[in-house]
Amino acid sequence: MKALVLVAAVLAATPVAAEPNQLSQHPRVGELAQINFNDGSTRLSVDYNRKIGEVAGWAQTNPTGLIVISGFASPQETRGAEDVVLSLKRAEAVRDELISQGIDPDRIVIAAFGGRGTPRADVYGTNEPLTATVTSVERRNPATIVWGTRPASAVAGR
After folding, report:
1. Which residues in the chain land under pLDDT 70?
2. Is there a domain that residue 5 lies in?
3. Of 14, 67, 72, 113, which one has the fewest beta carbons inside 10 Å?
4. Is residue 35 included in any domain, yes or no?
């Protein structure tokens, strides 16, 4: 009985490696995280560190995959070009955190949608080629698309 209690105590004290969740069974695309923001803010809450870590884990497990970050503002926050800037800055905040965790910025595509929903950034993973990914994002009609540090239009050959 003493041995059983000792083994249980050792197992309970052993740290568990954080494995990223397999959030999508589809090998080509899946939502990895949704990062919510306070109204008017572009600041990432520490509450999302685990989700950002899971996205970075997905990127490490899928070395040829791309990460697509879609930034949004709510219609009540701002109007016109300001909501596009706010949604872009939210997506950039998530991108910058991923870069700080070692993810190559050339594996990240950002789309800013402006005031089309709640203040958030949706993060997706895909194994599609870059041009197909940009084309897919363009179909959703964002206000702007950025790849790495370059405009996506330069990549798509337009």
Report:
1. 1-29, 149-158
2. no
3. 14
4. yes
